[in-house]
Amino acid sequence: MRLFVLSVAATMLLAGAAHAAGPAEKTALACIAKVEQEGVSGLKCFGTVYADCMKSANADDAACGARELSFWQSEHDKAWKDAKPGIDGYAEMRPAQMAAEKEFNDYRQKACAIADKVDPGTMPGRSALCRAEITAQRALMLRKIVYSLGEH
């Protein structure tokens, strides 16, 4: 089983490398693989891309939030693509999972809309970073689903 976990982590890490535009994204992927191997949530790695982006001169927190969102959206899309065949194999699960995915997208948009209306200093990364955090949570849950479905 441990070999399977390492295999899934390595596969996702390599697949994710295709969208890894820079060192921060590669660092985030390595962090996720490491903490998941240790049995810790990959959420520990959230903000890696944003923090790296904010180090540059004249960094824009909204643009850096968008970069973090892009990273996690790509991770989500990959995990959903990997989970879907397994979900489709369980007729009783499929409607609920399809609904959950739609509701996730709706929730993410609604929950984070306020972030662009508040004082920027109180909501770093604005709505993009808010959406990134919710997307990270969903992406990591989908990774667990992929792993769980692979066990059967």
Describe the structure.
The chain is built from six helices and no strands. With 152 residues, it is mainly alpha-helical. It has one domain. The radius of gyration is 16 Å and the shape is globular. The N terminus is likely disordered.
In short, what is this structure?
With 152 residues, the protein is mostly helical.
Assembly state: single chain
How many angstroms separate the termini?
A: 12 Å
Strand content bin? under 5%
Weakly predicted, low-confidence segments: 1-18
What is the H-and-E element order? Answer: HHHHHH
How many β-strand stretches?
0
Structural class: mainly alpha
Determine the number of helices (DSSP H or I, runs of at least 4 residues): 6
Number of domains: 1
Question: Strands, helices and their partners?
Answer:
Layout: H1 2-17, H2 23-37, H3 48-54, H4 61-88, H5 94-112, H6 126-150
Helix pairs in contact: 1-2, 2-3, 3-4, 4-6, 5-6
Descriptive labels:
mainly alpha, 152 residues, globular
